[in-house]
Amino acid sequence: MLTVSTANVNGLRAAAKKGFVEWLAATGADVVCLQETRAEADQLTAAVREPEGWYPVLAPSNAKGRAGVALYTRAEPEAVRIGFGSAEFDESGRYAEIDLPGLVVGSLYLPSGEVGTARQDEKERFMKEFLAYLVDRRERAAADGREVLVCGDWNIAHREADLKNWKANRKEAGFLPEERAWLDEVFAAGYTDVVRALHPDVQGPYSWWSYRGKAFDNDSGWRIDYHMATGGLAARATEARVEKAPSYDQRWSDHAPVTVVFDEG
């Protein structure tokens, strides 16, 4: 079996003080993908920077205190790559990937965007470049005998079932028609939303809840943290779950880990 978890930690230093270290020590995952780490390696404690039993890959942003992705693996990666060949985004802490036997695993933090601002323009540029990369990555991996799994915070809810208040968010970043159509293109490029494939007819399961109001208590959330897998790997997925904290005060992020179990095949 292969178990992979992904989580936007909303600041790795803060999450480490709230329970992330304990979660990492207890998880049965073989690979953990993190996003929005917002930390340089020398700002992290040894328990986070070099946790026992893990090979860490840290990819901070060149803009200090922003973005940042990471991967932790039980097995030593065969190769590590930071970025995806983008002049604009390779140092922005948005993407890193590793090679494991028969598999490429990427950790993605797609820009969140904001309608009518430069942030949305940035998101759209990223989406255009990254879609082309996904196509190329799948083809090159297949030629090398590998499947591809891109985990992370994609910052787009694809369907009405992926967010509680979809009617109120139809003109907001994260649920715009053009963003949802872009995910359709990702699927057309040979990738499968593994959690939705295993849970096709349910609301959610959500993975992000605003800190404002009673969003967490009322399960008024968004499903924006995805495991996107190429066909051979997606077909081997047997279990997918959101590790939602038992209560608001036990959260170590505004996101929850999303964990998928695959048969080895």
From TrEMBL:
GO terms for molecular function: double-stranded DNA 3'-5' DNA exonuclease activity. InterPro entries: AP_endonuc_1 (IPR004808), Endo/exonu/phosph_ase_sf (IPR036691), Endo/exonuclease/phosphatase (IPR005135), ExoIII-like (IPR037493). Its EC number is 3.1.11.2. Gene3D superfamilies: Endonuclease/exonuclease/phosphatase. PROSITE patterns: AP_NUCLEASE_F1_4. CDD domains: Nape_like_AP-endo. Residues 6-255 form the Endonuclease/exonuclease/phosphatase domain. Its cofactor is Mg(2+). The keyword NAD does not apply. It is an enzyme of class 3 (hydrolase). It comes from the Bacteria. Keywords: Hydrolase, Magnesium, Metal-binding. Pfam families: Exo_endo_phos. PANTHER family: EXODEOXYRIBONUCLEASE III. Belongs to the DNA repair enzymes AP/ExoA family. This is Exodeoxyribonuclease III. It comes from Saccharopolyspora cebuensis.
